[in-house]
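**Protein of interest**
===
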Amino acid sequence: MGIYLNPGNGLFEMSVNSDIYVDKSMLIDLTNSVIRTDERHICISRPRRFGKSMAANMLSAYYSRGCDSRELFRNLRISETENFEKHRNKYNVIRLDIRSYISANEDPLKIKENITEDILYEISEEYPDIKMPPRNTLEKALATVYIKTGIPFVFIIDEWDSVFRVFPQNNKAHTVYLDFLRDLLKDKEYVALDYATGIFPVKKYGEHSALNMYHEFSINDAAPYSEFMGFTEKETQALCEKYELSYDEMKDWYNGYLVDETPIYNPQSVVLACSRKIFSNYWTKTETFEALKVFIELDMDGLRQSVIRMISGEKVRVETETFQNDMTSFRSADDVMTLLIHLGYLTYDRSTGEAWIPNREVRQEFINCIKDKGWEEVMYSIRKSDDLLKATLSFDEKKGRRYC
């Protein structure tokens, strides 16, 4: 068992042992269906705190030869499927958290070098009797292990797009990193499965289409992975019943994300609301919202009016196809709003082409961002609307007339 090569199942075991755990193990049934096929390269992008790392930990625990996870999965839905034992703990897993390499190293050009050193070291520890080729590279080492053992590799790459989000202007680092992933993964027989997670899809990073082998599933186009993008209505209702919370209030606070016509709840916020028995802005407190302020204050192509309409509860049409999947290349209000969809500040209905603020939690953060920023007339209308709603709910006719 290693850190990067064939890790154990401890992280996923902690999730399963938690007081609040929602069984998302049928995701494995989908990845099993594409393993060792041309569809084996999967990139699933969704906002932060929507369960990306938990899914990566689960897949690592299931496929890794570094542990025996039969008992860990025994009471989960995946254990009832036909191929559960066929693939369980049968692969050499390489598990990478790209963000951890950025945290440990301020120079993004060294990410390739550090990943290569870490994996080569653990391969030499795991397979000391296999003679490696001269002019050894990571790709040659993996190919050699596969040829000698017959055991292919499962790659699980969490936060694959961190390089682009943390170093948005470093085009040289982007190119080196993309070339590294392409050389490591594309058209390689030793790759049984390649599962990457991030916030952004991959296909539009400039003109450098190194990773065109990926089948992409994003928050606004996720089928058949829609139900794994967050908590479903059924799962959230069950939690409300267990923890004796109002489902209507839970829905008001955290619902509103529409993923291929599947209503999805923010997992982080639902879990915290259940454990603390208090409805609050949990998800928004996990992020730095200075970025949101910068984006919605960009005065381009009617963006301000679109934000005002959405804060008021309206939906606006968004063209998502021009978005370049980064945080710098904005040519229109559509690009900015598409970014906000991927970050989880907006949700999107692909069938109608409309976007809107998903719920009370996120709406409040939009309101917080426009305070004292030249949006005074908007804030006045919002306060007036909120006061009218309170008067209506309290049957205060006299006060209600004042705000009409």
